[in-house]
Amino acid sequence: MPTLSATIVVYNGAAEALEAAASILRHTQKYALTLYLIDNASPDGSGKQLQDAVANGMLKCSDNQTVRVICSPKNKGFGGGHNLVLGQLESDYHFILNPDILIEDDVLSAMADWMETNPQAVMARPALKFPDGKEQILPLQKCSALALVYRQLPQLGFLKRFNDRYVMAEADLSKPTKIEFCTGSFSMLRTTTMKQIGGFDEGYFMYVEDADLTQKARQVGDVYLLPQFMAVHAWHRAPHTNKSHFKMQMKSMLRYFSKWGFRL
């Protein structure tokens, strides 16, 4: 039977992460799971809140579940936070989860079952929806400069065709589909693949590191969208509302293009 592990990286807002963790523990019952809660030196005391929740039994675990809290002394960024567990992983499949993810059934075990019967696949993600049930349209192809501009400034309608390509608007996405971009909000890898590619590139502090991780995984095997599985993602969209986050995203895009080539 396969074993599972998952990481949730937290920077402030422990309550949301604990809700996500409770959701994962409640529904992941088929296979053994180790869930890592990583606090990225949150100034609001989230690390202690996570530790207290585990110590006082607020997070209820089954016999085959373990929760471990790691408090980083410094903010290592999204990828750096997730990388903190690389040396500890002993699972068959590892899940990368945002603190704003909720699941409604045992999607982790179901995705592991699919990977067991598809050995060419090394990375995958489920379909995602907003809390109101509306499907999220996320990138599926390699990063596109003009698609990113359009997603920030949708009034520039003449750029829509680049975004359509980015999200594979013309493709049949009702069945498992090979993709080039696996969102970091909810993705899974074979643990052997995660270790082989060295996890995330920590040269990215935030944004586009998931696109970079996908390209590294694609050098090992295939990456898939699995629309038969679904999770809820609140998607706070900070780059769209915060100028400093948008600048950070632009810096990350430049790093990505320097590594993997520029695409309009």
Structural class: alpha/beta
Strand content: 15-25%
User: What's the helix-strand series?
Assistant: EHEHEHEEHEHHEEHHEHH
Average pLDDT across residues?
A: 94
Distance between the termini: 44 Å
Categorize the overall geometry. globular
For the biggest sheet, the summary is: 9 strands, mixed
Count of separate DSSP helical elements: 10
What report would you give on this structure?
Strand 2 (33-39), helix 2 and strand 3 form a beta-alpha-beta unit. Strands 1, 2, 3, 4, 5, 6, 7, 8 and 9 form a nine-stranded mixed sheet that branches. The protein is built from ten helices and nine strands. The radius of gyration is 18 Å and the shape is globular. It has 264 residues and is of the alpha/beta class. The relative contact order is 0.17. Helix 5 crosses helix 6 (160-166). The mean pLDDT is 94. The termini are far apart.
